[in-house]
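Aim 2, interim progress: modelling of the zinc ion-bound target.
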Amino acid sequence: PIVSAEKFVKAARENGYAVGGFNTNNLEWTQAILRAAEAKQAPVLIQTSMGAGKYMGGYKTARAIVENLVESMNITVPVAIHLDHGHYDDALECIEVGYTSVMFDGSHLPIDENLELARKVVDLAHAKGVSVEAEVGTIGGEEDGIIGDGELAPIEDAVAMVETGIDFLAAGIGNIHGPYPENWKGLHLDHLEKLVEAVPGFPIVLHGGSGIPDDQIQAAIKLGVAKVNVNTECQIAFAKATRAFAAEYEANEADYDAKKLFDPRKFLAPGVKAIQEAVEERIDVFGSANKA
Ligand code: G3H
Ligand code: ZN
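Predicted structure of the complex, ligand included:
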């Protein structure tokens, strides 16, 4: 069923595992994530960035795709439809059109403004049973044109943000969106530990989940991370499998043409399967298999 993420993220925090927040881009992507979640019996957030929302024809369409697939695919695990890194207006629109979870990302704003807008989003969202994520500090790297410089989350900002009534907190701890550079220094687990001490029991979100070594992810989960966001990894898995299939197609053109493998339902299938495999593998690493 489609639900708010509040309860299942809280349950993850209380029981020492993390749920995946997987970004979607289209129908097939959504099917792949849902198939993986159902196969693993894992609660999951399917999230759209603002850009992906636009790409999918608007938030209303994105919401409808997730909702209708959950029904037609007989998905039994809890699924939240979540806005990832949303501006204030986008968060409001998503609450309006039926997203069950939103991230208001005011991390680029002065902290007082970030807090004030988060409070407003919480009021509007909670009135509709929608869960809320907000961010302090910044995630390094670039996503959909939003560039963060990777500033560690100030502890007092984290405490103040939790007091706004949000349900889970994204905090910069040296994590980066997109592929990690060779000279990356790793997660600042010592900083995460300080954050967790300041907001005991509160679910922390780890962004930039693609490319962090599994042992570091699991150490972060042990400390208090209850949601891990994954986007790039699925994109790379899809692109790799699609490119391999295209190369195979080139080499066997006449045969593949005769088999009508140019049909998008066939042409895209290896890529879609690769997304499903990547999501299943992440769910195992996060420990949320069989937690539905
Ligand atoms: O908000 C989305 C995530 O933080 C994704 O990061 O593309 O590095 O996996 P990623
Ligand atoms: Zn992110």
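The longest helix spans residues 232-251. Residues 85, 139, 143, 177, 207, 229 surround zinc ion (ligand 2) (CB under 6 Å).
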